[in-house]
Design a protein that fits this description.
By secondary structure, the protein is mainly alpha-helical. Helix content is about 45%, strand content about 10%. It contains nine helices and seven strands. It has a three-stranded parallel β-sheet. Strands 3-4 form a two-stranded antiparallel sheet. A two-stranded parallel ribbon has the order 6-7. A hairpin with a 6-residue loop joins strand 3 and strand 4. Helix 7 crosses helix 9. The protein is elongated, with a radius of gyration of 22 Å.
Length: about 190
Amino acid sequence: YIVFSPSSFAPEELEVEIFGKGIDAAQSFGDASPKQGVLERAKNGTLVIDEVAGLPADIQTKLLKTLATNKFKRVGHDKEYNLECRIISTTSKDMQAEIAEGRFKGDLYSRLSVVPVEMPSLKERRDDIPALCEYFVNAYAAMTNKPVKKVSDEALSVLQSYEWPGNISQLRNIIEWLMIMSKNDSDVIN
C-alpha cells in the first residue's frame, strides 16, 4: 500500500504526484523522463489518501472523473491508464460541513465513502489512554534501547483530563517527550 498526503506537496505539484506526467509534459518541465503518479504506483494494491479534504477543487474534479471511469491520464499525455488500486481516504474534517460550504465535492465524497468508518477522537476515548501510553512507552523504549518506564497514576490522571486537540499523535509526542525528559534512574514517569 501507498500512503499519500496531499499536504506534503504544493498545490501545483499535486496533479503530477497523483496522476503522473507523460513524456510531453516531462519535456516541458525540463525533464526528459515521464513519471508515475501514486495512482499508477499503487497498482494491484491500496492507495491511502491522507486528509483528502485538503485536495484543491480541480484535483477533486479529476479524481472524481477517475473514480467514475476507472481510468486516468498522466499530465500532458493522451494514453489512458486503468485504475487498478483500492482507494482509502482519511480526514479529520466534518465532511458534511465541507460539502455544504462548497470546499469538497459531494459526488466525490459519495464515491469515496463506500464503507465509511468513523473513528472517535482521543478525548472521546479517555479510557484508552493508559493502554496507548503503555504502547508508546514500549515502542519508544524499543526504538531507543532505553529501559521501559511506567507512567504514574498521577500522570495518567492528568493525561486523561486533557482535551487532546492533536489526538493520538499528540499523545505519542508527549509520551516520547516524557521519556526523554524523565530521570534516567527512575522507572516511573511522573
